[in-house]
C-alpha cells in the first residue's frame, strides 16, 4: 500500500478543529495559541506532509477546540527492506488542542506499508518534544524537527536489532502476555488460546520469529480487536478496536519498550 497525502479539503472534512483559531474561554493571559493549520503549513515547508488525522470524540459545545492528532511522513525519507524496496516510512505525530488541555506535542514512529494498522511508536523516553502555548516560530519548529530527524539512525539501528534477534516460543508467549497488560492493565485476562492467536501471522511479511515481526503481529491484533477476553465474571467477551488515539499511542510506546527488553545485550 502507499500513503495518501491529505489535502486541505481532506483535513477540513476529517477534523475541522485543525483550522479553528478561537480558544476556550477563561484561559490565562500567558496562553498564546499555536494554531495547528500553521504548523501543518510549516511542516509541509520542511518536507513533511499529512497522511492521517484523528480527533478525540467530544459531546461538549467546545468540540471545535478538542484535541486532535495529525500524522506526517516525508516522501524523501524511506526505510528500505533487505531487498532494497521501500518498506517503512518514519512518521511524525502532532498532537494539539485549542482548549488549554495540552501542549503541542510531537512523537516519532515508523509506518509499515503492508498494513493499515502498521504504525509503531517509539518508546516514550526517546524521540519526541513539546511546545507550550506561549509563542511559536518556524525556526523553533525547524530546529525541533531537525533534532528528531537526527535520531533516525538510532531508530534504524534498533529496527535492525529487532529484525536480527530471534525469539523462542516461550519468549513470544511472554511478550504477548506483557503486551496484553500494556493494553488492558490487569482489568482483563485472556484464555491461553487467545494469547496464542495474537502470535499467529496473517500475512507472509509477518512470518518468522524475530522481535520485529512478533511485535508487529501482536501490535496489529491488539489495535484491531476482535479477540476474546474474560470479564470480571469469567465470561468470554470480544474485544473492541482501539479508537482513542491517546490510548493507541500509549500502548504502542509500551510495546516498543517491551520489545527493547529482548534485544538488550
Explain how this protein is built.
- Helix content is 36%, strand content 18%.
- With 265 residues, it is of the alpha+beta class.
- The strands form 2 sheets. Strands 1, 2, 3, 4, 5, 6 and 7 form a 7-stranded antiparallel sheet that branches. The chain has a two-stranded antiparallel ribbon with strand order 8-9.
- α5 (169-184) packs parallel to α7 (211-224), α5 runs antiparallel to α8 (245-261) and α7 runs antiparallel to α8.
- The radius of gyration is 19 Å and the shape is globular.
Number of beta-strand segments? 9
Rg over CA atoms, rounded to whole Å, is 19 Å
The main sheet comes to: 7 strands, antiparallel
Instruction: Report how far the terminal alpha carbons are from each other.
Output: 35 Å
Overall residue-averaged pLDDT value: 85
Please give the share of residues in helix: 25-40%
- Work out the strand percent: 15-25%
Q: State the oligomer.
A: single chain
The helix count comes to 8
Structural class determined from secondary elements:
alpha+beta
Low-confidence stretches: none
Principal-axes geometry comes out as globular
Order of helices and strands: HHEEEEEEEHHHHHEEH
Q: Which secondary structure elements does this structure contain, and how are they paired or packed?
A:
Blueprint: H1 8-14, H2 36-45, E1 49-55, E2 68-73, E3 79-80, E4 86-96, E5 104-112, E6 119-121, E7 128-131, H3 138-150, H4 152-164, H5 169-184, H6 192-197, H7 211-224, E8 228-230, E9 236-238, H8 245-261
Antiparallel strand pairs: 1-2, 2-4, 3-4, 4-5, 5-6, 5-7, 8-9
Short synopsis of the structure:
Helices cover 36% and strands 18% of the residues. With 265 residues, it is an alpha+beta fold. Strands 1, 2, 3, 4, 5, 6 and 7 form a 7-stranded antiparallel beta sheet that branches.
Amino acid at each position: 500500500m502507499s500513503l495518501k497525502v491529505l489535502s486541505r479539503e481532506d483535513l477540513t472534512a476529517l477534523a475541522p478543529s485543525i483550522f479553528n483559531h478561537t480558544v476556550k474561554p477563561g484561559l490565562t493571559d500567558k496562553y498564546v495559541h499555536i494554531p495547528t493549520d500553521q504548523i501543518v503549513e510549516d511542516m509541509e515547508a520542511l518536507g513533511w506532509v499529512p497522511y492521517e488525522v484523528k480527533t478525540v470524540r467530544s459531546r461538549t459545545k467546545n468540540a471545535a477546540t478538542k484535541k486532535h492528532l495529525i500524522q506526517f511522513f516525508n516522501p524523501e525519507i524511506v526505510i528500505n527492506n533487505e531487498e532494497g524496496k521501500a518498506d517503512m516510512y518514519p512518521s511524525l505525530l502532532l498532537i494539539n488542542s485549542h482548549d488549554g488541555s495540552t501542549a503541542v506535542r510531537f512523537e516519532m514512529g515508523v509506518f509499515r506499508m503492508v498494513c493499515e494498522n502498521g504504525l509503531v511508536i517509539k518508546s516514550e523516553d526517546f524521540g519526541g518534544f513539546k511546545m507550550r502555548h506561549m509563542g511559536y516560530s518556524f525556526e523553533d519548529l525547524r530546529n525541533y524537527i531537525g533534532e528528531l530527524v537526527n535520531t533516525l539512525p538510532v531508530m534504524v539501528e534498533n529496527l535492525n536489532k529487532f529484525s536480527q534477534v530471534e525469539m523462542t516460543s516461550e519468549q513470544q508467549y511472554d511478550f504477548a502476555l506483557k503486551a496484553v497488560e500494556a493494553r488492558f492493565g490487569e482489568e482483563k485476562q485472556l484464555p491461553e488460546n487467545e494469547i496464542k492467536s495474537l502470535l499467529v501471522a496473517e500475512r507472509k511479511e509477518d512470518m518468522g520469529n524475530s522481535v520485529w515481526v512478533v511485535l508487529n503481529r501482536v501490535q496489529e491484533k491488539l489495535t484491531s480487536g476482535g479477540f476474546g477476553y474474560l470479564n470480571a465474571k469469567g465470561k468470554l467477551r470480544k474485544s473492541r478496536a482501539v479508537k482513542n488515539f491517546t490510548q493507541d499511542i500509549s500502548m504502542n510506546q509500551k510495546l516498543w519498550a517491551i520489545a527493547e527488553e529482548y534485544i538488550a545485550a
